[in-house]
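Dear support,

Our group has been running a series of protein-ligand predictions, and this particular one with zinc ion is the one our PI (initials K.S.) wants archived with full inputs and outputs. We had some confusion internally about which version of the output was final, so please treat the block below as the authoritative record. The input we submitted was:
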Amino acid sequence: MCDVGQSASTQSTPGQVARRPGAPTSGVQTCCPDVAEFKKATRPADYFGFDDKTDMVDTGTDPYWVPAAKAKTAPSDKLTRDGAVWLSVEKGQTAKCIIDFTNNLTCISNCTYETRPGGKVTVVTSSIAADRAVFEIRGDNAGDATVVVRCNGQDKGWVHVACHERLTFSVGMCEVNQTITTGTGAAARSSLTLPRPTMNVAQYQSFFDDCYRAACIKVNITALPRYDLSATTNLAAGGGFFDANGQMESPGYRSRMATGIYPVTDAIDSAVRRAHPGYDKYLYLMIPPGARQSGTGYLNGFARGIGGNYAIFFNDDAGTYSTAAHEFGHTIGLRHPNDSNGTGQYPAHLRAGDTNVAANDVLNLMGYGNPRNQRKELRYKQWKAASGR
Ligand SMILES: [Zn+2]
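Confirmed final output from the archive:
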Protein backbone atom coordinates (compact mmCIF):
# COMPACT_ATOMS: atom_id res chain seq x y z
CA MET A 1 0.00 0.00 0.00
CA CYS A 2 1.16 3.42 -0.86
CA ASP A 3 1.80 5.96 1.88
CA VAL A 4 -0.47 8.53 0.38
CA GLY A 5 -0.36 11.94 1.90
CA GLN A 6 2.98 11.65 3.73
CA SER A 7 5.37 14.52 3.62
CA ALA A 8 8.04 14.46 0.99
CA SER A 9 10.80 13.85 3.51
CA THR A 10 9.48 10.45 4.53
CA GLN A 11 8.11 9.19 1.24
CA SER A 12 9.46 5.93 -0.05
CA THR A 13 11.92 6.11 -2.82
CA PRO A 14 13.50 3.17 -4.58
CA GLY A 15 16.10 1.52 -2.31
CA GLN A 16 14.90 3.15 0.89
CA VAL A 17 12.47 2.09 3.56
CA ALA A 18 9.98 4.65 4.68
CA ARG A 19 9.78 5.29 8.40
CA ARG A 20 7.74 7.44 10.65
CA PRO A 21 9.22 10.79 11.66
CA GLY A 22 10.90 10.38 15.02
CA ALA A 23 11.20 6.61 14.90
CA PRO A 24 14.62 5.25 15.86
CA THR A 25 16.90 4.21 13.06
CA SER A 26 18.04 0.66 13.50
CA GLY A 27 21.66 0.30 14.65
CA VAL A 28 22.16 3.96 15.54
CA GLN A 29 22.00 4.75 19.22
CA THR A 30 21.04 8.12 20.54
CA CYS A 31 23.29 10.15 22.78
CA CYS A 32 22.48 12.78 25.27
CA PRO A 33 22.98 16.18 23.68
CA ASP A 34 25.45 17.31 26.34
CA VAL A 35 28.49 15.35 27.31
CA ALA A 36 28.94 16.90 30.75
CA GLU A 37 32.58 17.69 31.40
CA PHE A 38 36.07 16.33 31.92
CA LYS A 39 37.23 16.23 35.49
CA LYS A 40 40.37 15.50 37.42
CA ALA A 41 40.90 11.92 38.42
CA THR A 42 40.27 11.56 42.11
CA ARG A 43 43.77 10.67 43.19
CA PRO A 44 46.67 12.93 42.15
CA ALA A 45 48.77 9.81 41.60
CA ASP A 46 46.40 8.86 38.74
CA TYR A 47 47.23 11.78 36.50
CA PHE A 48 50.05 14.13 35.56
CA GLY A 49 48.87 17.65 34.77
CA PHE A 50 45.28 18.85 34.67
CA ASP A 51 44.92 22.38 33.35
CA ASP A 52 41.48 23.95 33.26
CA LYS A 53 42.84 27.50 33.02
CA THR A 54 44.65 27.85 29.71
CA ASP A 55 41.51 27.34 27.61
CA MET A 56 39.08 28.64 30.22
CA VAL A 57 35.94 30.06 28.68
CA ASP A 58 36.16 33.70 27.74
CA THR A 59 33.60 35.83 29.50
CA GLY A 60 30.54 36.26 27.33
CA THR A 61 31.14 33.41 24.93
CA ASP A 62 29.31 30.16 25.28
CA PRO A 63 31.27 27.07 26.11
CA TYR A 64 31.23 24.36 23.47
CA TRP A 65 30.35 21.83 26.08
CA VAL A 66 26.95 23.06 27.22
CA PRO A 67 24.44 24.08 24.55
CA ALA A 68 22.60 21.09 23.21
CA ALA A 69 22.06 22.55 19.79
CA LYS A 70 25.60 23.73 19.20
CA ALA A 71 27.61 21.78 16.68
CA LYS A 72 30.68 20.41 18.39
CA THR A 73 33.86 20.10 16.40
CA ALA A 74 37.29 20.00 17.97
CA PRO A 75 39.08 23.22 17.01
CA SER A 76 42.22 23.07 14.93
CA ASP A 77 43.80 25.59 17.30
CA LYS A 78 44.08 23.73 20.58
CA LEU A 79 44.48 26.98 22.50
CA THR A 80 40.97 28.11 21.69
CA ARG A 81 39.25 29.35 24.83
CA ASP A 82 36.33 26.97 24.61
CA GLY A 83 36.47 25.54 28.12
CA ALA A 84 38.33 22.38 27.14
CA VAL A 85 40.93 21.10 29.59
CA TRP A 86 44.52 20.07 29.01
CA LEU A 87 45.97 16.89 30.39
CA SER A 88 49.63 16.01 30.41
CA VAL A 89 50.96 12.48 30.29
CA GLU A 90 54.47 11.19 30.42
CA LYS A 91 55.61 9.15 27.46
CA GLY A 92 55.20 5.46 28.29
CA GLN A 93 52.86 6.18 31.21
CA THR A 94 49.11 6.53 31.54
CA ALA A 95 46.94 9.27 32.98
CA LYS A 96 43.36 8.85 34.10
CA CYS A 97 40.58 11.28 33.34
CA ILE A 98 36.91 11.28 34.17
CA ILE A 99 33.99 12.26 31.98
CA ASP A 100 31.01 13.11 34.06
CA PHE A 101 27.80 12.52 32.13
CA THR A 102 25.56 13.45 35.00
CA ASN A 103 23.88 10.07 35.32
CA ASN A 104 23.29 9.49 31.64
CA LEU A 105 24.61 5.95 31.53
CA THR A 106 23.18 5.25 28.11
CA CYS A 107 25.22 8.05 26.72
CA ILE A 108 28.40 6.80 28.35
CA SER A 109 28.05 3.31 26.96
CA ASN A 110 27.42 4.60 23.44
CA CYS A 111 30.47 6.85 23.21
CA THR A 112 33.72 6.06 21.52
CA TYR A 113 37.06 7.85 21.77
CA GLU A 114 39.29 9.01 18.94
CA THR A 115 42.65 10.70 19.07
CA ARG A 116 43.60 13.40 16.56
CA PRO A 117 46.22 13.27 15.27
CA GLY A 118 47.01 9.63 15.86
CA GLY A 119 50.36 8.40 17.12
CA LYS A 120 50.74 10.67 20.15
CA VAL A 121 48.42 9.15 22.73
CA THR A 122 46.08 6.16 22.95
CA VAL A 123 42.96 5.63 25.01
CA VAL A 124 43.81 2.26 26.49
CA THR A 125 40.90 1.58 28.81
CA SER A 126 37.58 3.09 29.58
CA SER A 127 35.07 1.96 32.12
CA ILE A 128 31.82 3.07 33.61
CA ALA A 129 31.73 3.66 37.33
CA ALA A 130 28.54 5.00 38.84
CA ASP A 131 27.69 8.03 36.70
CA ARG A 132 31.11 8.45 35.22
CA ALA A 133 33.29 7.15 32.47
CA VAL A 134 36.88 6.77 33.54
CA PHE A 135 39.41 6.50 30.80
CA GLU A 136 43.12 6.01 30.76
CA ILE A 137 45.32 7.73 28.22
CA ARG A 138 48.74 6.38 27.42
CA GLY A 139 51.51 8.66 26.16
CA ASP A 140 53.04 7.11 23.04
CA ASN A 141 55.15 9.90 21.54
CA ALA A 142 55.97 13.44 22.58
CA GLY A 143 53.55 15.94 21.13
CA ASP A 144 50.04 17.33 21.49
CA ALA A 145 46.83 15.59 20.53
CA THR A 146 43.12 15.75 21.17
CA VAL A 147 40.98 12.93 22.49
CA VAL A 148 37.52 13.35 21.03
CA VAL A 149 34.45 11.73 22.52
CA ARG A 150 32.09 10.68 19.74
CA CYS A 151 28.59 9.35 19.52
CA ASN A 152 26.07 9.14 16.69
CA GLY A 153 28.85 10.12 14.32
CA GLN A 154 29.36 13.47 16.04
CA ASP A 155 31.96 15.03 18.28
CA LYS A 156 30.45 15.32 21.72
CA GLY A 157 33.41 16.91 23.45
CA TRP A 158 37.17 16.69 23.76
CA VAL A 159 40.19 17.00 25.96
CA HIS A 160 43.62 18.06 24.80
CA VAL A 161 46.59 15.99 25.85
CA ALA A 162 50.26 16.96 25.90
CA CYS A 163 52.62 14.00 25.92
CA HIS A 164 56.13 14.74 27.18
CA GLU A 165 59.32 12.83 27.60
CA ARG A 166 60.26 12.76 31.25
CA LEU A 167 62.92 15.27 32.25
CA THR A 168 64.95 14.50 35.37
CA PHE A 169 66.96 16.93 37.45
CA SER A 170 69.22 16.14 40.35
CA VAL A 171 69.23 18.77 43.05
CA GLY A 172 71.64 19.11 45.93
CA MET A 173 69.87 20.87 48.78
CA CYS A 174 72.12 22.39 51.36
CA GLU A 175 71.45 24.34 54.49
CA VAL A 176 73.94 27.15 54.67
CA ASN A 177 74.58 29.07 57.80
CA GLN A 178 77.14 30.44 60.11
CA THR A 179 77.40 30.90 63.81
CA ILE A 180 75.86 34.23 64.68
CA THR A 181 75.24 34.73 68.36
CA THR A 182 72.12 36.60 69.31
CA GLY A 183 71.05 37.56 72.80
CA THR A 184 73.31 37.66 75.81
CA GLY A 185 73.89 35.64 78.92
CA ALA A 186 71.52 32.75 79.39
CA ALA A 187 69.48 33.92 76.37
CA ALA A 188 72.46 33.73 74.02
CA ARG A 189 72.05 31.30 71.18
CA SER A 190 73.75 30.78 67.88
CA SER A 191 71.98 30.89 64.55
CA LEU A 192 72.98 27.29 63.95
CA THR A 193 70.82 26.25 66.86
CA LEU A 194 67.94 28.68 66.41
CA PRO A 195 64.57 26.96 66.53
CA ARG A 196 63.44 26.25 63.01
CA PRO A 197 61.69 23.53 61.06
CA THR A 198 63.99 20.64 60.36
CA MET A 199 65.21 20.55 56.80
CA ASN A 200 63.04 17.61 55.99
CA VAL A 201 64.01 16.56 52.48
CA ALA A 202 61.13 14.11 52.25
CA GLN A 203 58.69 16.98 52.60
CA TYR A 204 60.48 19.07 49.98
CA GLN A 205 60.53 16.03 47.71
CA SER A 206 56.82 15.49 48.14
CA PHE A 207 56.03 19.15 47.42
CA PHE A 208 58.26 19.20 44.33
CA ASP A 209 56.62 15.99 43.09
CA ASP A 210 53.20 17.60 43.43
CA CYS A 211 54.28 20.64 41.42
CA TYR A 212 56.47 19.20 38.69
CA ARG A 213 54.58 16.01 37.90
CA ALA A 214 52.30 18.22 35.79
CA ALA A 215 55.25 19.04 33.55
CA CYS A 216 56.46 15.42 33.51
CA ILE A 217 59.56 16.58 35.33
CA LYS A 218 61.09 14.53 38.12
CA VAL A 219 63.27 16.38 40.58
CA ASN A 220 65.43 14.16 42.75
CA ILE A 221 66.51 16.04 45.86
CA THR A 222 69.51 14.99 47.91
CA ALA A 223 70.27 16.55 51.27
CA LEU A 224 73.85 17.73 51.50
CA PRO A 225 75.57 18.20 54.86
CA ARG A 226 74.93 21.57 56.43
CA TYR A 227 77.56 24.05 55.45
CA ASP A 228 78.92 26.54 57.95
CA LEU A 229 80.50 29.55 56.30
CA SER A 230 81.49 31.41 59.41
CA ALA A 231 85.03 31.76 58.24
CA THR A 232 84.30 33.10 54.79
CA THR A 233 81.20 35.23 54.70
CA ASN A 234 79.35 37.63 56.90
CA LEU A 235 75.67 36.85 57.09
CA ALA A 236 75.03 38.87 60.22
CA ALA A 237 72.28 41.47 60.30
CA GLY A 238 73.51 44.64 58.67
CA GLY A 239 76.59 42.87 57.37
CA GLY A 240 75.96 43.77 53.74
CA PHE A 241 74.06 40.65 52.83
CA PHE A 242 71.06 40.85 55.12
CA ASP A 243 69.67 44.21 56.12
CA ALA A 244 69.80 45.74 59.59
CA ASN A 245 66.77 43.64 60.57
CA GLY A 246 68.54 40.47 59.57
CA GLN A 247 66.23 39.92 56.60
CA MET A 248 66.43 40.77 52.91
CA GLU A 249 64.21 43.60 51.85
CA SER A 250 63.34 43.77 48.19
CA PRO A 251 64.71 47.25 47.33
CA GLY A 252 67.96 46.44 49.09
CA TYR A 253 68.25 43.20 47.16
CA ARG A 254 67.83 45.00 43.88
CA SER A 255 70.33 47.72 44.65
CA ARG A 256 72.95 45.36 46.08
CA MET A 257 72.43 42.35 43.83
CA ALA A 258 75.66 42.79 41.92
CA THR A 259 77.80 44.18 44.72
CA GLY A 260 76.64 42.64 47.99
CA ILE A 261 74.43 39.66 47.22
CA TYR A 262 75.61 37.62 44.24
CA PRO A 263 79.33 37.73 45.19
CA VAL A 264 78.35 36.14 48.50
CA THR A 265 76.03 33.50 47.06
CA ASP A 266 78.44 32.72 44.21
CA ALA A 267 81.12 32.06 46.83
CA ILE A 268 78.76 29.83 48.79
CA ASP A 269 77.79 28.01 45.63
CA SER A 270 81.36 27.32 44.55
CA ALA A 271 82.35 26.16 48.03
CA VAL A 272 79.46 23.72 48.28
CA ARG A 273 79.84 22.64 44.67
CA ARG A 274 83.51 21.86 45.27
CA ALA A 275 82.63 19.72 48.24
CA HIS A 276 79.62 18.04 46.61
CA PRO A 277 79.94 18.18 42.84
CA GLY A 278 77.74 16.72 40.16
CA TYR A 279 74.20 17.97 40.75
CA ASP A 280 72.23 19.67 38.00
CA LYS A 281 71.04 22.42 40.34
CA TYR A 282 71.75 23.52 43.88
CA LEU A 283 69.26 24.93 46.34
CA TYR A 284 70.51 26.71 49.42
CA LEU A 285 68.44 27.09 52.52
CA MET A 286 69.60 30.06 54.56
CA ILE A 287 68.42 30.96 58.02
CA PRO A 288 68.13 34.75 58.20
CA PRO A 289 69.52 36.07 61.47
CA GLY A 290 66.54 38.36 62.02
CA ALA A 291 62.91 37.67 62.69
CA ARG A 292 60.50 37.73 59.78
CA GLN A 293 59.39 41.30 59.07
CA SER A 294 55.80 42.14 58.37
CA GLY A 295 54.77 43.43 54.99
CA THR A 296 55.39 42.22 51.50
CA GLY A 297 58.66 43.99 50.76
CA TYR A 298 60.82 41.09 51.92
CA LEU A 299 62.23 38.31 49.82
CA ASN A 300 61.42 34.69 50.47
CA GLY A 301 64.22 33.62 48.19
CA PHE A 302 65.81 34.32 44.82
CA ALA A 303 67.35 32.46 41.93
CA ARG A 304 70.69 33.29 40.35
CA GLY A 305 68.91 34.46 37.24
CA ILE A 306 66.52 32.65 34.90
CA GLY A 307 68.14 29.35 33.95
CA GLY A 308 70.86 29.80 36.58
CA ASN A 309 72.50 26.94 38.39
CA TYR A 310 71.40 27.69 41.91
CA ALA A 311 68.83 29.44 44.03
CA ILE A 312 68.56 30.62 47.61
CA PHE A 313 65.52 30.30 49.79
CA PHE A 314 64.91 31.56 53.28
CA ASN A 315 63.41 29.39 55.93
CA ASP A 316 60.81 31.39 57.71
CA ASP A 317 57.35 29.91 57.52
CA ALA A 318 55.08 27.23 56.14
CA GLY A 319 55.51 28.56 52.61
CA THR A 320 59.16 27.52 52.48
CA TYR A 321 58.46 24.42 50.39
CA SER A 322 56.61 26.45 47.81
CA THR A 323 59.37 29.05 47.73
CA ALA A 324 61.98 26.34 47.14
CA ALA A 325 59.91 24.88 44.30
CA HIS A 326 59.31 28.36 42.84
CA GLU A 327 63.01 29.27 42.88
CA PHE A 328 63.89 25.94 41.33
CA GLY A 329 61.38 26.81 38.60
CA HIS A 330 63.42 29.91 37.77
CA THR A 331 66.54 27.78 37.42
CA ILE A 332 64.84 25.72 34.70
CA GLY A 333 63.55 28.75 32.83
CA LEU A 334 60.17 29.56 34.35
CA ARG A 335 59.24 33.20 34.82
CA HIS A 336 56.72 35.20 36.79
CA PRO A 337 53.25 35.85 35.37
CA ASN A 338 54.02 39.57 35.19
CA ASP A 339 57.46 39.18 33.61
CA SER A 340 57.56 41.04 30.30
CA ASN A 341 60.02 38.41 29.05
CA GLY A 342 57.63 35.64 29.99
CA THR A 343 54.72 36.37 27.69
CA GLY A 344 55.22 33.00 25.96
CA GLN A 345 54.72 31.18 29.25
CA TYR A 346 51.22 32.47 29.98
CA PRO A 347 48.16 33.12 27.85
CA ALA A 348 47.11 36.75 28.14
CA HIS A 349 44.28 36.01 30.56
CA LEU A 350 46.67 34.29 33.00
CA ARG A 351 49.23 37.07 33.08
CA ALA A 352 49.51 39.21 36.19
CA GLY A 353 49.68 42.91 36.83
CA ASP A 354 51.83 44.78 39.29
CA THR A 355 51.10 42.47 42.20
CA ASN A 356 52.29 39.42 40.25
CA VAL A 357 49.17 37.52 41.22
CA ALA A 358 47.37 36.08 38.20
CA ALA A 359 43.71 36.77 38.91
CA ASN A 360 42.60 33.71 36.98
CA ASP A 361 45.27 31.45 38.43
CA VAL A 362 45.94 32.60 41.97
CA LEU A 363 47.82 29.51 43.08
CA ASN A 364 50.20 29.31 40.15
CA LEU A 365 53.59 28.16 41.46
CA MET A 366 55.38 31.03 39.73
CA GLY A 367 53.09 33.81 40.99
CA TYR A 368 52.77 35.55 44.32
CA GLY A 369 49.29 34.42 45.32
CA ASN A 370 48.26 33.33 48.77
CA PRO A 371 48.24 31.10 50.66
CA ARG A 372 51.84 30.66 49.66
CA ASN A 373 52.10 27.05 50.79
CA GLN A 374 49.31 26.11 48.36
CA ARG A 375 50.96 27.58 45.27
CA LYS A 376 51.60 24.50 43.17
CA GLU A 377 49.95 24.85 39.77
CA LEU A 378 51.81 24.82 36.47
CA ARG A 379 49.88 25.31 33.22
CA TYR A 380 50.24 24.10 29.65
CA LYS A 381 52.66 26.77 28.46
CA GLN A 382 54.75 26.35 31.59
CA TRP A 383 54.96 22.60 30.92
CA LYS A 384 56.56 23.55 27.63
CA ALA A 385 58.72 26.38 28.92
CA ALA A 386 60.29 24.30 31.67
CA SER A 387 63.82 23.74 30.49
CA GLY A 388 63.05 25.01 27.01
CA ARG A 389 60.99 21.99 26.03
ZN1 LIG B 1 60.25 34.35 41.58
